[in-house]
Design goal:
It is a single chain. This protein has 405 residues and is of the alpha+beta class. It folds into three domains: 2-80, Rossmann fold, CATH 3.40.50; 102-179 and 375-405, 2-Layer Sandwich (Dna Ligase, domain 1); 184-360, D-amino Acid Aminotransferase, Chain A, domain 1 (2-Layer Sandwich), CATH 3.30.470.20. Helix content is 36%, strand content 16%. It has helices at 12-24, 58-69, 78-83, 86-95, 129-136, 159-167, 218-235, 265-268, 270-290, 306-309, 317-327, 331-348, 356-360, 376-380; strands at residues 2-6, 29-32, 48-51, 73-75, 103-106, 140-144, 154-156, 174-178, 184-191, 195-202, 207-208, 239-247, 250-255. Strand 3 (48-51), helix 2 (58-69) and strand 4 (73-75) form a beta-alpha-beta unit. The protein binds adenosine-5'-diphosphate (ADP) and magnesium ion. Adenosine-5'-diphosphate (ADP) binds next to strand 6, strand 8, strand 12 and strand 13.
Amino acid sequence: MKIGILVGMEETFPAKLIEKINDRQAGVTAEYLKIGGIGIADPNQYRLIFDRISHEIPFYRSYLKHAALNGTIIVNNPFWWSADEKFFGYSLAARLGLAVPKTVLLPQKSYKPGVTDASLRNLQFPLKWDEIIEHVGMPAILKPHDGGGWRDVYKVHSKDELWAAYDSTHTLAMVLQEFIDFDEYVRCYSVGRKHVLVMPYDPHNRRYLPRQASTLTPDLEDRIIRDTILINEALGYDLNTVEFAMRDGIPYAIDFTNPAPDADIFSVTEPYFEWITDRVTDLLIDYALHGEATAKYHRWSKWLNYDVQALPNQMVGGERDNLAERLFSGMGKVARQASDALTGVIDQITEPVKSKSSRKKKGEGSEKEAKGKKGSKDRKKDGSKKKDSDKDGGKHKHGKTKKGD
Ligand SMILES: Nc1ncnc2c1ncn2[C@@H]1O[C@H](COP(=O)(O)OP(=O)(O)O)[C@@H](O)[C@H]1O
Ligand SMILES: [Mg+2]
């Protein structure tokens, strides 16, 4: 039985996974997969494919969907991966009772070639910028609705700064979001929607911190673990990172659509790397031996049944806990087990110490959150062919309306 690994430029993570899977001798072997032209009747040689790069290579994505149809288990689910974007994620997380910053989805600044004013008649113009700004407050974060890797993320302090940033976003659909002035920031690795590793993270220097740097109370960490499992259950991701910004004891979910999260030893550091590669090895072997085919498509809608829809958009306190209990009975126990398992990790994790072999490889570039590279070239292009320079208050170019606001 074979596991195929599909990768981009990253080195340390897939290499270690292949080594660990093969060392286990569990009746499953792992290798880098090789493919060329694919026919619809071609036999399928992999029981499972671990995908780290199909967001950048459409050929791979198409192949993976076909492989799923033919019974291969794909981690992560290519159908969901194709469908997700940040704004839907915030909306879903809010419905599930997670704390989410106030967020507004904005119409694009420009459009691809061929889209004319006539195609945009449904868009309100000018936008009600003052109301939007009042809702999210200042400073605010402007970022792509399906971005990644910090690309095109702006922090703006005023309407002028917002407009200047917005003007440079061209054809990207952006969200404007309340800036969470955090006391602490964590990035959580979630594996198999069961195992959660809470890693303190320093966004200013973009580096992971040792576990000892965390000031989270056990209760807060429990909530973070539970929120992480809940959102991944709903999204159906087997591997993901979820970022939280802590403000006044509340963990705000900031970024949780990272289906190919950075796992390079040089960025996550060795103790976390060991945890991640062990858990992913367990997961892939377990799925290969016992898993259900990805064709049994995971649907987020099952988490939003009619009971949930009857509830208000944002839930607080007991209401939220009740919902979480109902949604995944027994999952609280799982979260607590995950939390207990962390204690073991905490004991192991001290200041990161690099192994000899990793020191040797130090020169290699660490692959940033792989999702971040999605389609950047095209996006830089302002396809609208219109001049992008007028500073009208409307901030998007369509319709015959006058400069607004
Ligand atoms: N609402 C927010 N409040 C505070 N910081 C934020 C917020 N949104 C994003 N950031 C900062 O910007 C970084 C990049 O944003 P993120 O949503 O993670 O996008 P990406 O998918 O590009 O990583 C985050 O790691 C965080 O440091
Ligand atoms: Mg992020």
